[in-house]
Amino acid sequence: MQPRPVEVPVAAPAYTAAPEKLPVVSLGDLGKTVVTAGAGAVVTAIFITSLQGSAKWVGALLGGSVGAIFLATSPVASVPSDLGIGMLAGATGWAVLRWTDKVQE
Fold first, then answer.
1. What is the pLDDT of residue 19?
2. Range of the domain at 64
């Protein structure tokens, strides 16, 4: 008994079949991202400034941790993701400024 030849259809690669589309970012989308990230930085600033002395580091760690969780668990370009970017950036910025003695107690 001889094996019969089998034909298996193979789709063309996506880069040859799909027309090239560039991502479109509207000014409204960009504005929403900037405002939401700014709100995240403000939330972290509230965490930091509501504490006294070396406890400010707890506020920075709290803001940075919550921001990292939001960023890691949310879809890209969603409100929680943008909020997480701002929270993480606010905490990181404050920590760098504190370590370099650019921020006074």
1. 65
2. 27-99
